[in-house]
Amino acid sequence: MKAFLTLALLFLAGTPALAGQSDAALRSALTADLRDYLASRGTIEHISTASLSINLPNGGSNIDVAVGTMRYGGGKPVTPDNLFQIGSNTKAFTASIVLQLEAAGKLSIDDPLGKFLPQYPAWKDITIRRLLDMTSGIPSYDNTVPMMAYLAAHPYQNIPLTQLVAYVYPTTPGAPKPTTGYSYSNTNYILAEMIIEKVTGKRYASEVQRRILTAIPVENMYYASHLYPPAVATRIVSGYFWNHTPENKPLAPLLGKDQRLMSLSWAQGAGAAVGSPEAMTHWARALYQSTTFLPAAQRREMMTLVSLKTGKPIASASASDPRGFGLGLAQLWQKETGLIWFYEGETLGYRMTHAYFPKENVIFDVGLNSQPDNNQDDVGKLIVAIYKTLKNAGRI
Asked: Is the peptide bond before 121 cis (omega within 30 degrees of 0)?
């Protein structure tokens, strides 16, 4: 199962900016972008909606646009306040809580795993930093056949963290071999979640609520480790597993099924949060810029990168090495825009992509309601269209 896509976003130069374009005109142009995407990609990607929120640097209200319906094939229209599973954008929750604990002197990200989780001696020397930047060598449990088969057979069951980790622990018969260099692994963030609970003595969910959702605060964003209560679940758009890729064959019983009410216990601190696109922009603004949410030293650590190509540290993404991964964050270099921070979080039925343009100080998030085939995710083109529309409107 995919959880993070290194989008090859081809940002193209736009036409001359239309300075002073009104919010109404801009909203109309953005609506056209979303409708065009839904018309061309709706059947291919099995999506019924696209939802967008843009947070501009003037500190005013977000520009929110949503098109389509709550479920594939019809239903109520989607509004900007409807929710999506945000997938691996949740990893920034986990990484930032770890960094807050470091700032409080409770741990160091260079501490070894064995200091906190001695029950996993095979991984005792792996540091927290290597968990968070995906260089630990620990395989991802959600890529294993036993885990996928179990999930397909028990989509409403609460899966314990220890069961997720066991799928890839070296003593488990048939466990996958360690990885090398940079290798994306949800197991890393499940282990980080376990460290948070060990250090704080509290449930991860309560730490997310206290340290992020209440402290910032962020409205229209929620975290549950298993099933969402009806008050939240009824606001989530229906989302569909539509990935026919051969390696996902064990998940075939879930093809075409609405994932909205199914358990997210398979993702937890690696990807179980839900939120609206606007909520995501406010969270991203705090994450990248707030002077109170993370101390400067910890934010620098969070934004310290390794190359996706080599797994080695890099100062930043560049033309020769265009993709880097920090601690729960990703960076992309493109000729036309320079450096941007982005993340596409994905669950079995949803995609939430955020893009932060530091030069323009603009953040936007796009929600879609499916996981399509690996080669059919075309959200990068939608990001391009939105960027060009903002540029043409004189907003960036």
From this structure: no
Longest dimension (CA), the chain: 63
pTM to 2 decimal places? 0.94
Contact 268, 281 (CB under 8 A): no
Please write down the HEC assignment for all residues of the chain. CCCECCCCCCCCCCCCCCCCCCHHHHHHHHHHHHHHHHHHHHHHHCCCEEEEEEECCCCCCCEEEEEEEEECCEEEECCCCCEEECHHHHHHHHHHHHHHHHHCCCCCCCCEHHHCCCCCHHHCCCEHHHHHCCCCCCCCHHHCHHHHHHHHHCCCCCCCHHHHHHCCCCCCCCCCCCCCCCCCCHHHHHHHHHHHHHHHCCCHHHHHHHHHHCCCCCCCEEECCCCCCHHHHCCECCCEEECCCHHHHHHHHHCCCECCCCCCCCCHHHCCEEECHHHHHHHHHHHHHCCCCCCHHHHHHHCCEEECCCCCEECCCCCCCCEEECCCCEEEEECCCEEEEEEEEECCCCEEEEEEECCCCEEEEEEECEEECCCCCCHHHHHHHHHHHHHHCCCC
Q: 92-213 belongs to which CATH class?
A: alpha beta
Q: What are the two backbone dihedrals, phi and then psi, of residue 152, each rounded to the nearest 5 degrees?
A: -60, -35
CATH code of the domain made up of 23-90+224-392: 3.40.710.10
Domain ranges of the chain: 23-90+224-392, 92-213
* Exposure string for 36-72, b = 16+ CB within 10 A, e = fewer: ebbeebbeebbbbbbbbbbbbeeeeebbbbbbbbbbb
Q: Can you tell me the mean pLDDT for 91-112?
A: 98
The 10s digit of each residue's pLDDT in 135-193 is 999 999 999 999 999 999 999 999 999 999 999 999 999 999 999 999 999 999 999 99
